[in-house]
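Below is a filled-in request sheet from our internal design queue. Each sheet records the structural input a requester submitted and the sequence that came back. We keep these sheets so that new team members can see what a complete request looks like end to end.

REQUESTER: design group, bay 2
PRIORITY: normal
MODE: inverse folding
CHAIN LENGTH: 365
BACKBONE (tokenized):
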């Protein structure tokens, strides 16, 4: 099989057909595009959780695993409270990898206002390098959980305290109707920034032969530009309608745009020139011949809303920058323009960072 996330076709063919058991307490419909789970138990709080997995040799793998999990949760309007971490290492690894992964996970939790609740470490012969998985969980207030269980097809909303306060957590329906023609698509954060930071972590010494030390230090400092769950929470109360939010993870902004269109049932017209990229990302991607638009981007979000100005202002007030990419359309066409050139968005390709790591491991670079 190809590296990276399993395709929608493969998931529907080989995964969905195996899953038959259902319970009414579960909040989300099964989907190849869904990475969140949630349960509601009558008058008790509802709990929502999501996972993220990162591999490689970087000591910061734990940081990015937490950011992936927290980002998926934040896209549902829930700020994480606790994070459970699993670290898998090869028999050749040293004990330091567990120390580094735990410290990096704790650093990410300090950034997002959560706590590491458990760390499990294991050495396995099937593992090459380091694999870190994080599961982030948050609570939905008890007063809302009963509504949430019965409101399949809505998107949550976050209060100033960071807890979900809308009567919905599953699906993409707006509280006043389905996203439609004329809604705008925003991007909060920077495309490919997470992947850029991880490449510098993995290949800093090699990059030092091409770039001056100050450039690499400047790039590492961009970690503080990753958008946190509490910042993205500002997007939800703005305007009279709840936005649809998609965390940009594996596959980069192109994969996230595809997923957003799939879950929302829309087409769109996007100006690729408006997708925000750091110059550091451009230069490092050029050096390794990577496509920054297909580079993992945890800590960045797509937002589909009919109140773009209000959402952008609310995010700016929270210290997060959002730019307009384009407009949703009722037809299915997913159009990307770049000046005079216009094309249609392809199905998601394997993430560029995963491909880069695989090629380095095989010695082809």
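RETURNED SEQUENCE:
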């Amino acid at each position: 099989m190809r590296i990276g996330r399993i395709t929608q076709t493969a998931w529907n063919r080989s995964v969905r057909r195996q899953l038959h058991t259902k319970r009414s307490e579960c909040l989300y419909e099964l989907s190849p595009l869904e990475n969140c789970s949630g349960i509601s138990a009558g008058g008790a709080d509802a709990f929502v959780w999501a996972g993220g997995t990162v591999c490689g040799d970087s000591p910061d793998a734990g940081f990015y695993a937490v950011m992936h999990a927290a980002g998926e949760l934040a896209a549902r309007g829930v700020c994480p409270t606790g994070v459970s971490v699993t670290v898998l290492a090869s028999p050749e690894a040293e004990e330091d990898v567990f120390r580094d992964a735990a410290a990096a996970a704790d650093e990410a939790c300090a950034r997002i206002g959560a706590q590491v609740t458990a760390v499990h470490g294991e050495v396995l012969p099937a593992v090459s390098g380091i694999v870190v998985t994080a599961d982030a969980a948050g609570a939905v207030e008890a007063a809302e959980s009963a509504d949430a269980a019965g409101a399949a097809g809505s998107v949550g909303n976050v209060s100033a305290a960071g807890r979900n306060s809308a009567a919905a957590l599953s699906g993409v329906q707006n509280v006043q109707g389905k996203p439609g023609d004329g809604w705008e698509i925003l991007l909060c954060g920077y495309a490919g920034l997470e992947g850029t930071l991880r490449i510098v972590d993995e290949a800093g010494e090699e990059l030092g032969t091409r770039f001056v030390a100050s450039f690499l230090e400047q790039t590492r400092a961009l970690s503080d530009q990753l958008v946190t769950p509490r910042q993205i929470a500002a997007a939800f109360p703005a305007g009279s309608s709840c936005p649809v939010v998609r965390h940009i993870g594996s596959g980069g902004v192109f994969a996230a745009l595809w997923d957003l269109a799939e879950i929302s049932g829309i087409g769109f017209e996007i100006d690729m020139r408006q997708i925000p990229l750091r110059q550091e990302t451009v230069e490092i991607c050029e050096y390794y011949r990577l496509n920054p638009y297909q580079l993992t981007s945890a800590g960045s979000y797509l937002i589909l809303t009919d109140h773009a100005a209000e959402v952008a202002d609310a995010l700016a007030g929270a210290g997060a920058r959002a730019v307009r990419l384009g407009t949703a359309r009722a037809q299915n066409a997913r159009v990307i323009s770049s000046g005079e050139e216009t094309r249609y968005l392809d199905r998601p390709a394997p993430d560029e960072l995963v491909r880069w790591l695989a090629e380095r491991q095989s010695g082809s670079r």
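SHEET NOTES:
- The first helix runs from residue 8 to 14.
- The mean pLDDT is 87.
FILED BY: M.R.
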